[in-house]
Backbone:
C-alpha cells in the first residue's frame, strides 16, 4: 500500500507545482502562445506583460488599501476573538455552550444574504466607501471562524497552568495576558495567515461597500472582466493574477511550517 | 486590554467618517459619473475626451469613476439610501430597464429625448430612433436609458475564404455541405454556454413565427404553445444541424472559449457571435484573419430580426445634479463623439449617419433599417435558465429529437408556471 | 479536547467551590468584558442582517424599492421548482461523495506517509491550490480536459483509443466533483498530517514492540488520537460543502452567465435569484434559499457532532 501511496502523494504534489508553474509560465508568453501551445515554454519571455498588467489594472491604487485591510482585520479579529474564545473555552458557566454554537452559526451565513442589510447599516453610519466600514465587516465575518478555531486552541492548554498562576497570586487578567495568550502564539499566527489569505482575495464585500476606493482584488476582478470583454489578452491576465497571487505564495512559503504547526495545534489537542 | 478594544472600536468609525463624507453641499456644482468602462479601454478614451470637452463648454466639473463591468451591480444597493453616488450611471439596456428602472431608481428621460442634440437640428429621440428608444423603456413605461452604442450578433467568417455571403438558410446549408465534403467541420460553437446553444432555435423560431409569435410561447402558462407546428419546424431545423455533423467533435465537451479559439485559428469556418468578437479574439487569432460578418440568413423567406444590446446612460431619481447629467447626454450624442465610438472604440454607434467598421458593415445596415427583435423587454430570464436552455442544449447536442423537444417544453413549461402559483 | 462546539467547559480550578473563592469571582467578572465586544460586533454585523434576511424571505423584493409581503410563497415555489431539487441533490452529493473521497485520500496519505522522504516538501506543496484563484484553475482545467487536451493526449498515448469527454454535459458534474476533491484533499491532508505529527512517538514504539502492523497502529493509535481533529474538519467540510459556489460558477460559467442548471448547488441557486444575468433580481427567493442554507448548517453541525461524539470516550 505504501508503494501505492507514495506515487499518489508525489503526483498530487507535482501536479500542484505544475499548476503554479503553468500560471507563471503563461504569464510570460504571448496570448497566441497561451492558446495554441498551452503546455510549451514561452519562445521568448514577455516580461512586458507584467508592466502592462501593472499599469492597465492600476494595481498601485489597491495595494496600500489591501495591506491596511489585511493587517487591520487580522489584528482586529484576534483582539476581539481571543478573549472571547478564552472565556468560552476555559470558564465554567451556563451559557458557554450555547454562545459557542451561536458563534459557529455564523460560519453558515452566506455573504450575499446579508449584503444589503449591512449596506443600509453602513450607509446610516456614513461608512460606505470607507476602509473603516469594510474593516468592520471583515472583522465581523472573520469572527465565527476565529472563535471556533481559538476555542479549540485554548481548551487544549493544560489547566494546571491557570491553577499555578492563581496560586502565585496572579489575577485572572494577568493570567490571560501573561500566561495563556503567549501560549497560543502559534495558533494566533496561523489564524492571522489564514485570514490574510482570505481577505487579500476578498471581492464580494469590497465590491459592494467601496465606491471610489479600491483593493487589489477589486482591481484584479475589474481587470479580468475588462480583459475578457475587450481583447482576451490572456498572457497579460495571467501576469496580473501572478502579481496578486505570488506575494501570497511567498508569504505562505515563508510561514508554511509555522502555519501548519498552528493549524494542527488549533484543530486538535 | 479592555481600553484598547474600546478605543479601536471607537476610533474606526470616527476616522472613517472624518475621511468618508465629502461634504454633500457642494455636489451640485459637479457631475458624478459611474462608467462601465475601465481605464485604458478604447471606449473609456472616447468618453474621457467628451467629458473634458463638456467641462470646457459648460464649466461643470465632471468626476468619473471608471468602474468597469460591475458598475451597475455595485450601484444598485445605493438606491435604498439617500446617498446615490452618481448622477449618471452607465450600463446596457437590460441593466437599466430591468434592474435600475425596475427598482424605481431611474429618472424618466422623456425630456432628454425631446431636446435637440447639442449644436444640431434633430432631437435626441430622432437621432436614437424608435427601436432603441423602445429598448430603453422599462416594462413600467419609464424611459430609463439613453443609448449611444449598439452590439448585435452576426455570422463571422474569414473574408479571404468566402467572396459572397448566403442570403437564405438553404444557401448557407449548401455552403456548409460543401465545406463538410472537403473534410471540414464548418460551424464553430461553444457548447458550454447554454445561451449560445439556444440562438439557432430562437432565430429559426422568430423567423418562422415572427417575434410576437415566438415571444408569446414562454409566458404561456398552459405550455401548449410549444406544440405548434411552427415550433416543431424550428426544432427540426436545429435537429438537422445537430445531426448533420457540422460542429467540431467534442464541441459540447470543451470549455468556453475553446471553440471560439479554434475558429479564430481557422479550424472552423463560421461562428455566430456578438459584434465584440473581433476585439475579443484578436490577440490570439490566426495572423491575417480578415473579420467579416453577415446577418442570420432568411428562413422560409423571412430573415429573423436582430438581437441587440445597447450601451448608454441612466440618471438616478435621487441624482444631485440631474440637469448637468441631461445636458451631457445631449452633448455626447453629437456626431463628433459618435464618430469616435466607431473610429476609436471600433463599436457601432446608434447614429445612422456614423458608418461602422467594414467588418460589421453588413450588420449595421440591417440595424439601421430598424429590423430589431421586438419583445425582448419582457423578462423571461428565469424561465429561460430553468426550462428552455436545458432542453435546447439537449436538442442541439442530439440527445433528444425535435418532437421530443416540443413535447417536453410543453410539459415543463406548464409545470414551471404551476410552481409560480 | 472533545469536539469544539458546545464542549463542556474545562473544569477550571476544580477544587474551588462554585463562585466561592475570590479567584473564581474575579474570573466570573471577566466574562463580560472579554466576551461582549466580540459578541456585539458579530451580532450587529452578522446576526441582525441574517434576521432581516429571514424577513426578506417572506417577501417579494427586487433588492431596492418597496417589499411586497408574500408569506410562504417563496418557499413553496422553491420546493416545487425541479431546479431546486437538482441543486439540493448536487449539494448533497458534494457533501457526501466529495467529502468521503477527500477524507479517504487525506487518511490514506496521512497513514502511509508518516515516514516518507520529502514529506515536509509534499506537505507544503499540496496546500498550494487553496492559494490559487479559482479562475486560474478554471482556465487550466479548460485546456487540460479539452477533448484534444493534455489529459486525453496522455491517455491516447497510453493506448486508450476513446478517452472520456470530461467536460461533456453528462460527465461535467463528476468532473466538477473531482476538481473539488483535488482542491480540498491537499488542505485536509495537511491538517491531518500535522495532527498525526503531534501524537507522541512512544505510542507507536510501544505498539511496534507489540508487533502491530501499520494498519493496526493507524486504527488503534492514530485514528483515536486524531478523532477531535477529524470532528472539527467534518464540521468545517459540511459547512463549506453547503456553501459550494465559486468553484462551480467559475468552472462552468463564462463571465456574466450562469452555469447549466444541471450543475447548480444551493448557493448557486440563491445567487441566481439575487444576481440574475439579465433579469430583475429576486431577493425574496434568494433569501429563502439562504435561510435554508443556514438552517441546514445548524442541523448538520449538530448531526456531525452527535455522530463524532460517540467516539469521544476513546480520546484518552
Residues:
Amino acid at each position: 500500500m505504501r508503494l501505492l501511496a507514495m506515487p499518489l502523494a508525489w503526483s498530487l504534489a507535482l501536479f500542484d507545482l505544475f499548476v503554479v508553474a503553468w500560471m507563471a509560465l503563461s504569464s510570460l508568453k504571448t496570448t497566441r502562445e497561451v492558446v495554441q501551445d498551452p503546455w510549451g515554454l514561452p519562445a521568448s519571455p514577455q516580461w512586458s506583460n507584467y508592466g502592462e498588467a501593472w499599469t492597465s489594472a492600476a494595481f498601485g491604487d489597491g495595494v496600500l488599501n489591501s495591506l491596511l485591510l489585511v493587517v487591520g482585520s487580522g489584528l482586529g479579529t484576534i483582539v476581539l476573538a481571543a478573549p472571547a474564545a478564552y472565556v468560552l473555552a476555559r470558564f465554567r458557566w451556563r451559557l458557554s455552550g450555547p454562545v459557542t454554537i451561536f458563534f459557529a452559526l455564523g460560519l453558515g451565513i452566506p455573504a450575499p444574504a446579508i449584503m444589503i442589510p449591512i449596506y443600509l447599516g453602513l450607509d446610516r453610519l456614513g461608512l460606505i466607501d470607507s476602509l473603516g466600514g469594510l474593516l468592520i465587516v471583515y472583522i465581523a465575518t472573520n469572527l465565527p471562524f476565529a472563535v471556533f478555531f481559538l476555542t479549540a486552541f485554548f481548551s487544549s492548554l493544560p489547566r494546571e497552568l491557570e491553577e499555578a498562576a492563581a496560586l502565585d497570586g496572579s489575577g485572572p487578567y494577568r493570567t490571560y495576558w501573561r500566561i495563556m495568550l503567549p501560549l497560543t502564539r502559534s495558533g494566533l499566527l496561523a489564524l492571522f495567515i489564514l485570514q490574510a489569505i482570505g481577505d487579500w482575495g476578498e471581492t464580494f464585500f469590497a465590491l459592494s461597500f467601496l465606491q471610489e476606493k479600491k483593493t487589489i482584488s477589486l482591481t484584479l476582478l475589474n481587470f479580468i472582466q475588462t480583459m475578457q470583454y475587450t481583447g482576451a489578452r490572456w498572457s497579460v491576465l495571467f501576469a496580473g493574477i501572478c502579481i496578486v497571487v505570488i506575494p501570497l505564495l511567498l508569504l505562505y512559503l515563508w510561514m508554511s511550517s509555522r502555519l501548519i504547526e498552528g493549524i494542527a495545534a488549533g484543530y486538535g489537542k | 486590554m479592555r481600553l484598547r478594544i474600546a478605543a479601536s472600536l471607537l476610533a474606526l468609525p470616527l476616522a472613517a467618517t472624518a475621511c468618508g463624507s465629502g461634504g454633500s453641499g457642494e455636489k451640485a456644482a459637479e457631475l458624478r459619473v459611474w462608467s462601465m468602462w475601465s481605464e485604458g479601454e478604447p471606449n473609456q478614451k472616447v468618453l474621457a475626451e467628451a467629458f473634458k470637452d463638456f467641462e470646457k463648454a459648460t464649466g461643470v466639473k465632471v468626476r468619473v469613476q471608471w468602474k468597469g463591468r460591475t458598475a451597475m451591480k455595485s450601484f444598485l444597493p445605493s438606491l435604498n439610501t439617500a446617498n446615490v453616488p452618481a448622477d449618471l450611471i452607465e450600463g446596457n439596456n437590460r441593466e437599466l430597464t430591468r434592474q435600475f428602472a425596475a427598482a424605481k431608481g431611474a429618472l424618466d428621460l422623456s425630456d432628454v429625448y425631446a431636446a435637440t442634440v447639442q449644436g444640431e437640428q434633430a432631437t435626441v429621440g430622432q437621432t436614437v430612433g424608435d427601436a432603441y428608444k423602445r429598448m430603453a423603456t422599462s416594462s413600467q413605461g419609464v424611459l430609463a436609458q439613453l443609448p449611444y452604442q449598439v452590439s448585435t450578433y452576426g455570422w463571422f467568417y474569414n473574408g479571404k475564404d468566402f467572396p459572397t455571403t448566403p442570403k437564405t438558410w438553404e444557401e448557407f446549408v449548401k455552403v456548409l455541405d460543401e465545406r463538410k465534403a472537403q473534410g471540414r467541420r464548418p460551424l464553430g460553437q461553444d457548447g458550454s454556454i447554454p445561451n449560445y446553444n439556444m440562438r439557432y432555435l430562437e432565430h429559426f423560431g422568430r423567423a418562422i413565427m415572427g417575434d410576437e409569435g415566438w415571444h408569446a410561447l414562454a409566458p404561456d402558462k398552459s405550455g401548449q404553445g410549444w406544440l405548434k407546428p411552427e415550433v416543431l419546424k424550428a426544432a427540426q431545423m436545429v435537429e438537422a444541424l445537430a445531426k448533420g455533423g457540422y460542429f467540431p467533435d467534442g464541441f459540447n465537451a470543451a470549455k468556453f472559449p475553446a471553440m471560439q479559439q479554434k475558429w479564430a485559428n481557422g479550424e472552423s469556418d463560421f461562428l455566430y457571435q456578438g459584434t465584440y468578437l473581433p476585439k475579443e479574439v484578436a490577440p490570439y487569432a490566426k495572423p491575417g484573419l480578415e473579420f467579416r460578418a453577415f446577418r442570420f440568413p432568411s428562413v422560409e423567406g423571412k430573415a429573423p430580426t436582430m438581437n441587440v444590446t445597447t450601451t448608454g446612460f441612466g440618471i438616478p431619481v435621487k441624482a444631485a445634479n440631474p440637469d448637468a447629467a441631461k445636458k451631457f447626454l445631449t452633448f455626447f450624442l453629437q456626431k463628433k463623439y459618435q464618430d469616435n465610438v466607431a473610429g476609436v472604440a471600433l463599436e457601432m454607434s446608434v447614429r445612422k449617419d456614423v458608418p461602422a467598421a467594414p467588418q460589421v458593415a453588413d450588420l449595421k445596415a440591417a440595424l439601421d433599417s430598424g429590423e430589431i427583435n421586438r419583445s425582448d423587454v419582457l423578462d423571461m430570464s428565469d424561465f429561460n435558465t430553468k426550462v428552455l436552455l436545458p432542453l435546447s442544449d439537449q436538442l442541439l447536442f442530439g440527445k433528444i429529437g425535435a418532437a421530443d423537444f416540443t413535447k417536453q417544453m410543453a410539459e415543463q413549461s406548464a409545470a414551471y408556471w404551476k410552481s409560480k402559483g | 479536547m472533545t469536539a469544539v462546539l458546545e464542549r463542556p467547559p474545562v473544569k477550571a480550578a476544580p477544587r474551588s467551590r462554585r463562585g466561592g473563592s475570590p479567584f473564581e469571582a474575579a474570573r466570573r467578572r471577566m466574562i463580560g468584558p472579554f466576551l461582549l465586544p466580540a459578541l456585539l460586533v458579530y451580532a450587529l454585523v452578522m446576526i441582525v442582517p441574517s434576521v432581516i434576511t429571514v424577513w426578506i424571505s417572506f417577501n417579494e423584493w427586487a433588492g431596492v424599492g418597496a417589499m411586497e409581503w408574500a408569506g410562504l410563497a417563496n418557499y413553496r415555489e422553491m420546493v416545487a421548482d425541479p431546479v431546486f431539487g437538482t441543486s439540493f441533490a448536487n449539494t448533497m452529493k458534494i457533501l457526501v461523495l466529495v467529502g468521503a473521497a477527500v477524507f479517504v485520500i487525506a487518511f490514506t496519505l496521512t497513514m502511509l506517509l508518516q515516514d516518507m522522504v520529502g514529506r515536509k516538501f509534499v506537505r507544503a506543496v499540496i496546500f498550494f491550490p487553496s492559494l490559487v484563484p479559482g479562475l486560474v484553475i478554471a482556465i487550466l482545467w479548460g485546456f487540460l480536459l479539452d477533448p484534444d487536451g493534455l489529459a486525453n493526449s496522455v491517455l491516447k498515448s497510453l493506448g486508450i483509443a476513446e478517452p472520456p469527454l470530461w467536460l461533456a454535459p453528462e460527465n461535467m458534474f463528476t468532473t466538477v466533483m473531482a476538481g473539488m476533491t483535488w482542491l480540498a484533499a491537499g488542505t485536509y491532508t495537511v491538517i491531518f498530517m500535522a495532527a498525526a505529527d503531534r501524537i507522541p512517538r512512544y505510542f507507536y514504539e510501544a505498539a511496534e514492540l507489540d508487533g502491530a502492523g501499520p494498519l493496526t497502529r493507524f486504527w488503534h493509535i492514530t485514528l483515536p488520537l486524531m478523532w477531535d481533529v477529524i470532528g472539527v474538519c467534518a464540521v468545517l467540510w459540511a459547512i463549506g460543502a453547503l456553501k459550494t459556489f465559486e468553484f462551480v460558477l467559475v468552472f462552468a460559467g463564462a463571465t456574466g452567465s450562469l452555469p447549466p442548471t444541471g450543475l447548480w448547488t444551493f448557493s448557486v441557486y440563491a445567487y441566481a435569484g439575487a444576481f440574475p444575468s439579465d433579469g430583475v433580481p429576486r431577493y425574496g427567493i434568494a433569501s429563502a434559499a439562504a435561510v435554508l442554507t443556514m438552517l441546514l448548517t445548524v442541523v448538520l453541525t449538530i448531526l456531525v457532532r452527535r455522530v463524532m461524539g460517540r467516539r469521544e470516550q476513546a480520546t484518552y
Observations:
- The longest helix of chain C spans residues 22-56.
- The mean pLDDT of chain C is 82.
- Chain C has one domain: 82-314.
